């Protein structure tokens, strides 16, 4: 672990951009998957990145993991440019920044027992451990992810484990690096609802005890409220709102966040719920000009259709990229989407289970 000052982020992304070239028959263009995203991750804090399918969340995780090159922007680790340009730098980087994937079935090699998977990770990151030293390290990793008694799990094959247990092994493998940052891309969305809370509570424990900085990617804003200190809402490749999770989910400012909260728990169901079927998620090959949400926004004006709104202060530590919060005389009059679209289920209606903030039973695996 590094001695990062609390006010200095461990990992910082500056003006991240990723455009994917696409070629079809007779067409070519670029997918504007991520545009101008700034993001800070602090030791012992969780940031949730929330948005519907295709908004660019996974692309951000893969950029931060440096699994693919940036189109533009910079990645800064402990205040220093950490954009990797060669294999050695990448190896150093993955010793600090580890990723957990959505699918614990796909991310762990099915032909090897847990012992092999974890030993390999330990050897990559901590050198050639052997004998007692290796057994102690394996024990410690399994204990950290609460797979105890460890002897029951260490020689199991992935097919002998439940989805939740497999995700715990994937987390243990990430911990073998002693990382400062975990990038968790939808780590619970493929798991049975009954075991999701257990995995989130495990990640909370790692945040608190190991002071790991966590990026938690999800399309489920209720789980962001339960788990994350801060929440960033993404729409069509851009960040549209940021702030502490409680305020963002209880008093959303951006019309998109308002819709997301009202349509929780499944934002991908947003169109069906947003009465009037105000269009679909925009093409990212030809994104709408101005605010990318404008074709679906009940408040949009000419200003929204022509100029990209910057992230504006909308409260303490809170920002929203919506012209409605600007001083512009031609700004739209933003109220609450509920007033325009009618009553929808609010977050409170759905947040009680399984992400109750005051307790909730933890399933062990
Ligand atoms: N390798 C690629 N080549 C071309 N386009 C891509 C590539 N990877 C992602 N995209 C596009 O970039 C956009 C953002 O995708 P991304 O997977 O980051 O979204 P997401 O919010 O993580 O969605 P989901 O929740 O479904 O994973 C999508 O339009 C997607 O089709």
Give the integer mean of the pLDDT values. 87
User: What ligand molecules are bound, each kind once?
Assistant: adenosine-5'-triphosphate
Series of H and E elements: EEEHEEHEHHHEHEHEEHHHHEEHH
CATH architecture of the largest domain: 3-Layer(aba) Sandwich
- CATH class descriptor of the largest domain: Alpha Beta
CATH superfamily of the largest domain: P-loop containing nucleotide triphosphate hydrolases
Computed over alpha carbons, the radius of gyration is 21 Å
As a percent range, the share of strand residues is: 15-25%
DSSP strand count = 12
Helix content: 25-40%
Kindly give the count of domains.
Answer: 2
Distance between the termini: 28 Å
Major sheet summary line: 8 strands, mixed
* CATH fold category name of the largest domain: Rossmann fold
Unreliable runs: 1-5, 270-279, 344-365
Structural class: alpha/beta
The helix count comes to 13
Q: Oligomerization state of this entry?
A: single chain
Shape: elongated
The strands making up the biggest β-sheet line up spatially as 6-7-8-3-9-10-12-11
Give me a quick take on this structure.
The protein is α/β, with parallel strands linked by helices and 365 residues long.
Could you please describe the fold and organization of this structure?
Helix 3 crosses helix 4 (131-144) and helix 3 (114-126) runs parallel beside helix 5 (163-175). The strands form 2 sheets. The protein has an 8-stranded mixed beta sheet, sandwiched between helices. With 365 residues, it is α/β, with parallel strands linked by helices. The chain has 13 helices and 12 strands. It has helices at residues 57-64, 87-94, 114-126, 131-144, 163-175, 193-210, 221-227, 245-250, 255-262, 270-273, 302-306, 337-341, 347-351; strands at 11-24, 27-41, 46-50, 72-77, 80-81, 97-100, 181-185, 213-218, 230-235, 238-244, 312-315, 318-320. The protein folds into 2 domains: 11-21 and 30-230, P-loop containing nucleotide triphosphate hydrolases (Rossmann fold, 3-Layer(aba) Sandwich), CATH 3.40.50.300; 251-351, no CATH class. The protein binds adenosine-5'-triphosphate. Adenosine-5'-triphosphate is lined by residues 20, 22, 31, 33, 51, 53-59, 219, 284.
């Amino acid at each position: 672990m590094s001695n990062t000052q609390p006010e200095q982020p461990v990992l910082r992304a500056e003006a991240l951009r990723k455009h994917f070239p696409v070629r079809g028959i007779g067409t070519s263009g670029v997918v504007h998957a991520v545009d101008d995203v700034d993001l800070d991750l602090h030791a012992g804090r969780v940031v949730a990145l929330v948005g519907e399918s295709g908004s660019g969340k996974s692309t951000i995780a893969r950029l931060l993991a440096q699994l693919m090159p940036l189109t533009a922007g910079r990645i800064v680790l402990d205040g220093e440019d950490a954009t990797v340009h060669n294999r050695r730098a990448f190896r150093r980087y993955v010793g600090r920044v580890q990723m957990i994937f959505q699918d614990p079935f796909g991310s762990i090699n099915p032909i090897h027992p847990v012992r092999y998977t974890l030993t390999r990770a330990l050897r990559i990151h901590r050198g050639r451990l052997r004998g007692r030293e290796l057994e102690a390290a394996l024990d410690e990793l399994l204990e950290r992810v609460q797979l105890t008694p460890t002897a029951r799990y260490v020689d199991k094959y992935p097919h002998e484990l439940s989805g939740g247990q497999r995700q715990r092994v994937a987390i243990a493998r990430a911990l073998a690096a002693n990382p400062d940052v975990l990038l968790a891309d939808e780590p619970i969305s493929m798991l049975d609802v009954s075991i999701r809370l257990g995995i989130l509570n495990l990640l909370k424990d790692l945040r608190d005890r190991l002071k790991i900085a966590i990026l938690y990617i999800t399309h489920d804003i209720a789980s962001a409220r339960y788990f994350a200190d801060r929440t960033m809402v993404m729409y069509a490749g851009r960040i549209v709102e940021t702030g502490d999770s409680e305020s963002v989910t209880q008093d959303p400012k951006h019309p998109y966040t308002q819709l997301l909260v009202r349509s929780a728990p499944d934002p991908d169901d947003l169109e069906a719920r947003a009465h009037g079927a105000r269009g679909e998620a925009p093409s990212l090959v030809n994104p709408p000009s101005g605010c990318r949400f404008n074709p679906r926004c009940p408040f949009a004006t000419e200003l929204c259709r022509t100029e990209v709104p910057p992230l504006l202060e909308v409260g303490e530590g809170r920002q929203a990229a919506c012209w409605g919060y600007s001083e512009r005389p031609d700004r739209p009059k933003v109220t609450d989407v509920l007033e325009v679209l009618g009553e929808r289920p609010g977050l409170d209606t759905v947040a009680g289970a399984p992400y109750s903030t005051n307790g909730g039973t933890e399933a062990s695996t």
